[in-house]
Amino acid sequence: MKPNPFDSQLDPRLSRILTFVVESHVSRAEPVGSQYVRAAYHLSISPATIRNAMRELEELGLLLHPHTSAGRVPTEAGYRYYVDHLMRPETVPIGVRRILDDAIGRARTQSRASDLAPILARATRQLAVMAVRSREEAVDQVNLVALDGGHVVVAVGARDGMVATDTWRPERSPCAADLRRAESWIRARLPAAGPKTLDALALEARAGAPSEIAGFIEEALTRASRLLSTREEPAVRVDGADNIASQPEFQAPGTLRPLVSLLANQESLVRTLDAFSGESVPRVAIGREIESPAIRACSIVGMGVAVGGLRGAIGVMGPVRMPYRRVISLVSYVGARLAGA
Amino acid sequence: MKPNPFDSQLDPRLSRILTFVVESHVSRAEPVGSQYVRAAYHLSISPATIRNAMRELEELGLLLHPHTSAGRVPTEAGYRYYVDHLMRPETVPIGVRRILDDAIGRARTQSRASDLAPILARATRQLAVMAVRSREEAVDQVNLVALDGGHVVVAVGARDGMVATDTWRPERSPCAADLRRAESWIRARLPAAGPKTLDALALEARAGAPSEIAGFIEEALTRASRLLSTREEPAVRVDGADNIASQPEFQAPGTLRPLVSLLANQESLVRTLDAFSGESVPRVAIGREIESPAIRACSIVGMGVAVGGLRGAIGVMGPVRMPYRRVISLVSYVGARLAGA
DNA sequence: GTTGGCACTCTACGGTCGAAAGTGCTAACG
DNA sequence: CGTTAGCACTTTCGACCGTAGAGTGCCAAC
Hints:
The structure is a homodimer of 341-residue chains.
Chain A (H helix, E strand, L loop, with lengths): L11 H17 L5 H7 L6 H13 L3 E2 L8 E2 L1 H11 L7 H17 L5 H9 L2 E8 L4 E8 L5 E7 L4 E6 L7 H13 L6 H14 L2 H22 L2 E5 L1 H5 L11 H8 L1 H9 L8 E4 L11 E10 L2 E10 L4 H16 L2
Antiparallel strand pairs in A: 1-2, 3-7, 3-10, 4-5, 5-6, 8-9, 9-10
Chain A binds a DNA duplex (30 and 30 nucleotides) through helix 3.
């Protein structure tokens, strides 16, 4: 972290003006002039005074002039100061809260956390991302069960209680005794195993297990391993892309392209969001603060969540000119519910 | 189908010119003029002659004039005629074929057909979609199995051999006898049931099953039902969006928006692709032939596929000005491999 | 059916002009 | 010292216009 020259509070006069400029610009999407601020907030001071204040803010690097005769626009530092010092927390309106609670409840019980992305996208009118992956817990138990019809279920359980299953139909159906033997062969060799250990164990089985069930055990362990590793590649859900595509910052030709690439290439989006998964309260990354160079013109509000056996992050992305108050309050609300007991 | 006035072969002279115009325009992305055609194909006829032919083609509705002094552009009917009568099939080069074979093999064995979308996108340099859903087969069997640690697996098997499982941990762990009783209660009432029947059965269980296992059965059936219906919502994978976003037809402001919506709202894409799932050879939908009004400026080459217990469709989407030869050959190749035994 | 010649039409580009917006500066005021 | 009024200044934006370039349509001739 570089030292922030604005840690000390700004002059209250300048604070007020900065707040006005930021909030005006967020809602109007145009440079805001001194006249406009005066009229919009019914100020009793003259435009000239406001201009003086704006000039000071510009010298501090918090505002910016697109050109000589345009109003002011907040810089990224300006938004940063606004988010850190000026913005007051907003409470989520009761109606929205009900909708969210409902969706969160469903996500919890059905372990389909990704369904929250559309809800969050609608509520914030931005792009919402939800990425969850399973905890990388040690494997605790492996069960093998025969079903009617010759199918076999392999179920792996992690120490934290998460369970995943896969099904297949072996060429030669094993009898119940074989299943029990295979299970205990595995159990005897199962200390605390991650997916790599399971792979190693599969190899060991091919060589060392009783020959009539060796192939079967190998298959089961291979599937168990794949179960864990495919679980590790996060389930991601993105929604609301058209919300931000319709924003004025994406109207200029060529500006939408990075967004399309992002949607097409969700891995990089997930990687970006991963940086937020450690946060227990919303963190705001503004513009260039985002690592990924592809999305320089955007901001992200994100935090980590945990649902059932899954953990991951939620994030809301939009142009730097974003209604931070509302977005933060919503992310915070959803995040708290998903992190909480 | 409306009667096609062009079923009879076009004059060979006109056919040649139309072919040249289509192929030139596909690769150059600009209106093609008579001079250009002459030079590019080393024709020994004069530009004036070519112009005469073009005028005839324009009168037939196969070519179009953006304005008085621009070259010609194929109309959608022109592309249609080209695809139906002029285009010669292309063979997939051996190198590409190897890459595809490899990917197809992996998709088969791992039942992860969606991984083919990125491959197809790279090969065609267009947008590729792969959507698979499980067959809507009648439920054949429901198994309940206890695992170590108090978890229970519910496995539903469909008549065609597909199996899906879900796991949960009931509040009160049922004993082995309870499980068997629950299983046979269900089995006795299981004719050939779809997800709706399973839901109905869950309700019946709440009222009519032995009280000590009623709640358990209800839960199991609800999960089984959800298993089928979430399986029914197809797994979809889209890739290569940036391929077509970089095409000149998407450079004009506002033209990219529908594409973004499409990527954000993959349901409608899936619905559009569904229309192709019945085809056993590639079908080409050009421009307005596509039902969905959102993607009027695009064409789709798609066909149905089947992988393991899954069925669905692959599709390649791009601007109407698309290299149909190459795309069709690739879709055909992949599709044939996925449909074959 | 094909060709050469030529007038015609339309777009794209670059420059000029006036209106509108909003500032910066200076001088005056409490 | 903060605030204010007045005014010149800068810059963008849209409209307008004239020219260069591209490619056609048509006509008369082969």
